[in-house]
Design brief:
Layout: H1 2-32, H2 38-48, H3 50-54, H4 58-95
Helix pairs in contact: 1-2, 1-4
Length: 100
Amino acid sequence: MLWALYLLVGLPIQHRQEAEKLYSEKFKECIRGPGETFKSCEDYANGVFRPGVDEWAIANYYRSLWPFILGGLTVVPAVVYGLIRGVAFLSLWIYRGFAT
């Protein structure tokens, strides 16, 4: 349940925050440069880094990455469940002295 919540809500929010941080850092670096105007830096940041922020909007995240989300919601829990079952089976088999 926590995995699904993280994959559906937490991951896009986390990546969007990272992209916004990069956007603002690059914008600030541009402003500090010699002879740069606010408008030229804004155009540069919007053209180069803004698409990275918009990519992680919830709707865009679902639209573009739905196969991976679907796989993450089904395959990952199934693999974890299978591994736990396998370890439990092997542990009991060894504990019982390799008896069937």
